[in-house]
Amino acid sequence: MFQCNHRSSSTLLALIVACVFGTARADEPAVDPPEEAAPAPPPSDPPPSDPPPGDPPAPPPADPPADKPADKPADKPADKPADPPPARPAGTIRGSIIDNNTKVGLPAATIQIKGPAGDQTLASELDGTFTFTLAPGTYKITFSTPEYLDQVKTVTITASQQLELDGNLDPVPATSTETIEVVDKIDTRKESAVLAVRRAASTVSDSVSSQEISRTPDSNAGDAMKRVVAVTVVDGKYVALRGLEGRYVTALLNGVLLPSPEPDRNAVPLDLFPTTLLSTMTVVKSYSADLPGQFGGGTLSIDTSSFPTSFELRLGVSTSANTVSTGQRGLSNANARGLPSFLGFDDGARKFPTTIPRNQPVRNMSASETERIGESLPNVWTPEGDTVTPYLGLTAMVGDTVKLGGKRVGYLASGMLRRSFNVRSGHLGGVAISADGLEETDSLDYTTGIAEATVGGLVNAGIDLTPNDEISVLGLYTHVGEDVSQFATGFNEQDGLNVDVTRLSFVERALAFTQVHGKHLLARSRKLELHWQGNFAKTSRDELDTRDLAYTLDTMTGTRSYKDQPGSGQHFWQELRDTAGGGGADVRVRFGPAQLRAGASAQLSQRALGGRRFRFRYTGSSTTVRQLPAEEMFSTENIGTEFTLEEGTLHEDSYEAKLDIYAAYATSEVELHEKLRVIGGARFEQAAQEMTNGSPFAVAGLKTEVVRDDTDVLPAANVVFSPRPDTNFRAAYSYTLTRPRFRELAPFLFFDYVRRRDISGNPNLKTTHIHNADLRWEWFPTEDEVFAASVFYKQFVDPIEQVAANVNADATFLNADRGNLIGGELEARTTLGRIDSSLRRFKIGTNLAVMRSRVALGADQMLLTSKTRPLYGQSPFVVNLNLGYAHPKYADVNVLYNVIGARITDVGTEGLPDTYERPVHRLDLVVSRVIRKDLRLKASASNILDQEVRLEQSDFVVNSYKPGVAFSLGLDWTP
After folding, report:
1. Which of 53, 466, 777, 917 is the most buried (most CB within 10 A)?
2. C-beta separation of 263 from 609 below 8 A
3. How far is Cα 145 from Cα 148, in angstroms, rounded to an integer?
4. Sign (positive/negative) of CA torsion 811, 813, 815, 819?
5. What is the mean pLDDT of residues 342-369?
6. pLDDT the model gives residue 863
7. Cα separations (Å) of 651 from 202, 613, 655, 698, 699?
8. What is the distance between the alpha carbons of residues 731 and 555, in angstroms, rounded to a whole number?
9. Helix runs in 818-879, H state only
């Protein structure tokens, strides 16, 4: 509904029980009572008037008795003004606007209300439902929507009345030429609209709207998703659903499968999507056949903002500071200068040098040519100290719907810039098995400076070619540039000495996405519709001149000496290109109580990864040269004499791959009863996956070719029982899969510079198949309230696990025999006005997920330490809580809390224990205020508790740091 009664959010379990069982009065008004009117002044004496014709004149007033003097005006007390009648609570009208033949709800139907308080116009929700309040009185209400005959009803509302009222509209006869134009549109960014979609959905799902996001300090999709029930976020940008991450999560952008721009992860990083460009994010938790078959924890569906129905212009600016970063002396890269670097783009200083041939390896060149190349490489190795500046954010949006040539055309254009500089200081440790048990090996303290810039833009346009045909075009571009400077020092067991390690890296990640979508009504009588779409996406990741340097430290003399080994004195360039394109179409038709849907799609993707690495090998005789600072050590005088440039490119640094998925599906939604829907279907999916690695510049490495063809039939069934319009009982079963991604299959060795270890893929991985079952009860008492309880179960066949490959904690991937996951979820969003009307401005929301998983190991996995353990990356619980207060004259205040349970980040092997990330309690505070009609101020404090992030292996800390508390301030101008 467009009319919001401000009753959103939820409550704790005890509060839910109290609210549902008797605390709230059924006749309590759903809106704030009207403000008391000021007492009216006493009426003045009416002017004298002539008597009506024919009436005798009025007699003169009688004189007072002689023994009683007349009252003097001064002695007569003045009449007191009468007290105004007490304000009467409003009544509530709720119901549905439905097709009288099919009994299907009509979305965005118009509701015109005429009465003593004036006229107003509303619209029904996406499922045809509506709820609004009216002061006591008699009203004429007209229900209308295009292609249907109007229906007019007259109702009388009494104080606090709860009235059920439905509009049953008949289609316009075929001979009628009546045309009705609806000039309004549901705002899908609103919380109430998102809940309406959820209530009418055929699957178990949860969503977060842009309206809800605006109440948080979240700046990107990754931050916002952690507010959703049973959702956790890894590393601030990778989402885990019901404790499952990576390969078990599929990301869709406007219904299209997204590729990942990461060479070493399966997940799409959500920091690519600024919240200012998004309308809603929906987590689909029970499978339906129209979704991609890759479905484990669930599917994350991201919908971009659509064009508004009237002109909108919004400009915003924001800034923030962090207690451990801003104003402190941090690390920075000397190359990070100028406007391109400020925006997150390389200015050319880091690009692959033109002196290096692209058609032959350096090892085949002469000594003089090799020396010339070495002298041309950038000679900056040491991170600089720099003062960390505050965060900066800029946003802009403009949109409208207009008429051009008699046709409705809508457009939306938005853009944003986000720039931050953070410093992170922490501790790294290593653990090994000795005769006395576990002991700490490596122990390093590190400092990392991260300068990150994000720019993004979105253009969306649509046109109604005819009343039955519409086409829309979307273009999205987002780019993230991350400049990282890292310094670590401490003891390294391999060398038996203290070491100093530095790294300078610059990584650009980008996504360009375009989509054309069409919708056509082919036959109105059968509601025969054709939907089609075509898309193209290009993701890229460029790692530009990553420089790694290591020194050993003699603690007795205090001197440093260059560590001459692979990975030290190294320049590394790598680029990844992933292009994906495809399309699909589906037809929807209704036969009586059955809605049939069938479609086909093809999504083709190609990926190419190429990298080259070079390092300076010490070939001289002067030991003092190895003790010089890097910029002096690698000076032009020493290259060719003391140091020789050599190419260390491996076959694992490059590969080409493709994944083509062809699918066809059919579903049927049958209304067996007005309160019972059954949705069943199946999807046929064929996937062809190929990968070949190897580089013409390689000096060593493993060359492998992987070819896989999978054909699967994936059934799905969902049942929805709605005993009342505001209540659903859901049950679902499906059989789905998760394929290993390129990186998991590739036997490539790459180095994790944060954890100081090697990670490689496994070409023998099998596809994981999953049995999914869900049960849910949900109640929507008002348009922005919900109470829900769910249970779910998943059985995994051949689940893929990231495991420690050896005692050095290097990692690889293996299939376990089987695994299972069982859990429950509770959710509530409500107002404390259910307890007492004086608390009606307070909203409370909570969600809790409790999960338990177990993995059964095969005979070939006995090297793994834990024979019974949870699934890799799975948290046993997730808790979210938010409390809000909203007052139109003062401010909106929201307090948000989040915590997740300990989860495995690495599976131990050969006696090494599993590595766990310990729980971190997060508390945020957000305050927003409308300064004037066109200005809104928002202030927030994030991560107030500032708890330490800790990864532990048994009792040993292998990584720890404090993220700090962030304070932000933002201003939105809407002229």
Report:
1. 917
2. yes
3. 6
4. positive
5. 88
6. 59
7. 48, 11, 8, 5, 8
8. 66
9. none
Strands 594-618 and 818-831: unpaired
Residue 815, C-beta contacts closer than 8 angstroms, at least 6 positions apart:
765, 766, 768, 798, 799, 800, 801, 858
pLDDT band of 136, cuts 50, 70, 90: confident
> Residue 609's pLDDT is what?
86
Sign of the four-CA dihedral 59, 63, 68, 70: positive
Which bin fits 42, alpha (ψ -120 to 50), beta or left (φ > 0)? Answer: beta
What average pLDDT does the structure give for the chain?
A: 80
Per-residue pLDDT at 336: 62
pLDDT band (50, 70, 90) for residue 61: very low
Mean pLDDT of 857-880: 72
Is residue 839 pLDDT above 60, yes or no? Answer: yes
Burial class (CB in 10 A: 0-12, 13-18, 19+), 12: middle
User: What whole-number percentage of the chain has pLDDT above 90?
Assistant: 27
pLDDT of residue 485 exceeding 70, the answer is: yes
More confident residue, 241 or 44: 241
Written as six digits, the tokens of 262 are 């990461």
Q: Which residue from 109, 20, 476, 49 is spatially nearest to 256, judged by alpha carbons?
A: 476
Helix (H, G, I), strand (E, B) or coil at 476: strand
Residue 37 DSSP SS3? coil
- CA dist 853 and 264 (Å) reads 25
Query: Running DSSP on this structure, what letter comes out for residue 310?
Result: S
* 56: pLDDT strictly greater than 50: no
Q: How far apart are CA 491 and CA 203, in angstroms?
A: 54
Residues 6+ apart with CB under 8 A from 924: 216, 217, 895, 896, 897, 898, 940, 941, 942, 943, 944
Nearest CA among 432, 558, 575 for reference residue 912: 432
Cα distances from 431 to residues 377, 441, 478, 752, 877, in angstroms, run 37, 5, 40, 16, 28
CB within 8 A of 354, min separation 6: which ones? none
The secondary element (H helix, E strand) that includes residue 193 is: helix 191-200
Query: Which residue, chain included where needed, has tokens 């590190």?
Result: 446
Report the chain's terminal Cα–Cα distance, integer Å. 25
Q: Which of left, alpha, beta for 911 (phi over 0: left; psi -120 to 50: alpha)? A: left
Task: Taking residues 353-380, report their average pLDDT.
Answer: 90
pLDDT of the residue at 71: 43
Q: How many CB atoms lie within 10 A of CB 155?
A: 17
Instruction: State yes or no: pLDDT of 87 exceeds 90.
Output: no
* 212 pLDDT above the threshold of 80: no
How far apart are alpha carbons 865 and 907 in whole angstroms?
A: 8
Closest CA to 302 of 414, 398, 225, 192: 225
Closest CA to 440 of 448, 450, 430, 449: 430
Cross-strand pairs, 479 = 455, 510
Q: Model pTM greater than 0.85? A: no
